[in-house]
Design goal:
By secondary structure, this protein is an all-beta fold. The chain is 2% helix and 47% strand.
């Protein structure tokens, strides 16, 4: 069984970017009443006539261990998941490229306040909410469909470490 590891920027870097409030000061805006932190400078959503789309996913909590039998990827653009409120989720990923095998998967669990931006082409499982709730999703919309799926030759069981 693959246990989902705590999500860190360093461990997730091969697959994309962790979205979290950074340490330190941001750029003061709004007359000094707010700080701005730029998290991702290019979401890469314009390929092949694409445009950014903002969606809301209302997710039901999954049970764990969870059998992963299929992955998807978006080769033409990134995909971002950001919880509204404190909502943990598991992100199962594999490197961009050829269809992955179960043994090449990595799994991470957020702390409930983190989001992720998946780099274009990163293989991943659909949203695996640990906590029921709403998630903002930013992804590419366009005439060209940008979602490839692949069935794993053998399922991978994903588990959560005790809290």
């Amino acid at each position: 069984m693959l246990l989902a590891q705590p999500l860190t920027a360093e461990a997730f870097a091969p697959y994309g970017t962790v979205l979290a409030a950074p340490a330190g000061a941001g750029c003061l805006i709004n007359g000094g009443n707010a700080e701005r932190f730029d998290l991702v400078d290019d979401l890469q959503l314009g390929a092949d006539g694409g445009r950014p789309m903002l969606a809301l996913f209302r997710a039901q909590a999954r049970s764990f261990p969870h059998a992963v039998t299929e992955l998807e990827r978006h080769a033409l653009g990134s995909q971002s998941f950001v919880p509204l409120g404190e909502r943990r989720f598991v992100i199962v990923v594999a490197a961009a490229g050829a269809a992955p095998a179960a043994e090449s998967l990595a799994a991470f669990v957020t702390d409930g306040r983190q989001g992720v931006t998946l780099a274009p082409g990163t293989w991943h499982h659909a949203l695996l909410a640990v906590d029921t709730g709403d998630f903002v999703v930013v992804e590419r919309a366009g005439a060209a469909v940008d979602c490839d799926t692949v069935a794993l030759a053998a399922p991978a069981d994903i588990g959560l470490m005790p809290r």
